[in-house]
C-alpha cells in the first residue's frame, strides 16, 4: 500500500482511530491534514509524525460544534492554495453525547450531537468535493455504525443519518472520480468507549491501530478496487471482514 504524494484530510485526529489513521497514512507516504479541536494534542501528533521521518503534516484545529459553512470554505481555500487538490477525506470525528432515555434526552445536548456528528460532517464534505474532484482519483471514507443502542439515541440517530448521507453521496458520485466508502470499525478501545462503558473488558475491543490499517488501505488506490457490502456505496464491516493490508 502506497500513499506517496497523496494529501489526506483526517477529522478527529487528536485521539483514537483518527490519530492512529493519521500515523498510518503518513507512514505510507501521505501528507496528512490533521483536524481536531484540541491544538496541544494535534501538536503532539505533529511531532510524532515528523520525528518518525514521515512527510510533514498540516495542523488544522476547528471545533465542529461551532463550525459554519464559512469555516469550511476557509479550509477549502487553505488546502487549494497549499496543495491544489485533495486525494482523501476521512470523516472520522464524532461525539457520543450522553446516555439517557429518549423520553428525557436533553434537547440542547441532542442538537450538539447532531451538529458534531452529522451537520459538520456534511458541511465539511460539501466544501471538500471541489478539491477531491481536482485529484485524478480520490476517496471519501466515512466512519459509520450499524447498530442502534438504547439510551444512546442522539448518537445512534446521527450515525444512521451519516450512513444515509454516505449512501446518497455514493449514488451522486457514481460517474465521478470520487470513491465513497464506509468503514464500520466495531467496538474499539478508545477514550470515548472507556468513558461510556467503564465496566467493559478492554481485552475484547479492537485496537485503534487495527482500524487505522484498514482505513489507510481504503484511502489508497488499491482500496478503491475492493468490493464492500452490496449496498449504496461500499461498506466494510471490520467485525466481519478485514481488507487486505
What does this entry look like structurally?
The chain is of the alpha/beta class and 245 residues long. It has a single domain, classed as Rossmann fold (3-Layer(aba) Sandwich), CATH 3.40.50. The protein is built from seven helices and eight strands. Strands 3-2-1-4-5-6-8-7 form an eight-stranded mixed beta sheet, with helices on both faces. Strand 7 and strand 8 form a beta hairpin. Helix 3 packs parallel to helix 4 and helix 4 packs parallel to helix 5. The model has no long low-confidence stretch (mean pLDDT 90).
Summary of the model, kept short:
The chain has 245 residues and is of the alpha/beta class.
The helical percent reads: 40-55%
Element string (H = helix, E = strand): EHEHEHEHEHEHHEE
Looking at the overall shape, the CATH architecture is 3-Layer(aba) Sandwich
Give the C-level CATH assignment: Alpha Beta
Q: Which fold name corresponds to the CATH topology?
A: Rossmann fold
Query: Helical region count?
Result: 7
Number of domains: 1
Radius of gyration: 17 Å
Low-confidence stretches: none
Question: How many DSSP-defined strands?
Answer: 8
- Strand percentage, roughly? 15-25%
Spatial shape: globular
Outline the biggest β-sheet. Answer: 8 strands, mixed
Instruction: Give me the CATH superfamily.
Output: NAD(P)-binding Rossmann-like Domain
Strand arrangement within the widest β-sheet reads 3-2-1-4-5-6-8-7
Structural class: alpha/beta
First CA to last CA: what distance?
7 Å
Amino acid at each position: 500500500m502506497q500513499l506517496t504524494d497523496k494529501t489526506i484530510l483526517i477529522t478527529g485526529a487528536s485521539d483514537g482511530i483518527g490519530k492512529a489513521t493519521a500515523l498510518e497514512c503518513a507512514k505510507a507516504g501521505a501528507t496528512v491534514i490533521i483536524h481536531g479541536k484540541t491544538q496541544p494534542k494535534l501538536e503532539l501528533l505533529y511531532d510524532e509524525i515528523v520525528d518518525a521521518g514521515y512527510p510533514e503534516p498540516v495542523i488544522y484545529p476547528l471545533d465542529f460544534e461551532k463550525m459554519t459553512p464559512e469555516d469550511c470554505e476557509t479550509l477549502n481555500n487553505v488546502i487549494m492554495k497549499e496543495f491544489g487538490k485533495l486525494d482523501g477525506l476521512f470523516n472520522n470525528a464524532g461525539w457520543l453525547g450522553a446516555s439517557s432515555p429518549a423520553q428525557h434526552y436533553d434537547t440542547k445536548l441532542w442538537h450538539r450531537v447532531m451538529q458534531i456528528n452529522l451537520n459538520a460532517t456534511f458541511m465539511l464534505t460539501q466544501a471538500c468535493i471541489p478539491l477531491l474532484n481536482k485529484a485524478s482519483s480520490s476517496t471519501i471514507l466515512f466512519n459509520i455504525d450499524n447498530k442502534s443502542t438504547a439510551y444512546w439515541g442522539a448518537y445512534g440517530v446521527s450515525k444512521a443519518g451519516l450512513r444515509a448521507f454516505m449512501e446518497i453521496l455514493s449514488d451522486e458520485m457514481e460517474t465521478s472520480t470520487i470513491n465513497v466508502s464506509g468503514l464500520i470499525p466495531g467496538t474499539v478501545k478508545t477514550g470515548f468507549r472507556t468513558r461510556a462503558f467503564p465496566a467493559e473488558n478492554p481485552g475484547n475491543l479492537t485496537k485503534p491501530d487495527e482500524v487505522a490499517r484498514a482505513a489507510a488501505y481504503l484511502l489508497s488506490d488499491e482500496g478503491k478496487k475492493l468490493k464492500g457490502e452490496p449496498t449504496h456505496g461500499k461498506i466494510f464491516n471490520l467485525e466481519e471482514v478485514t481488507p487486505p493490508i
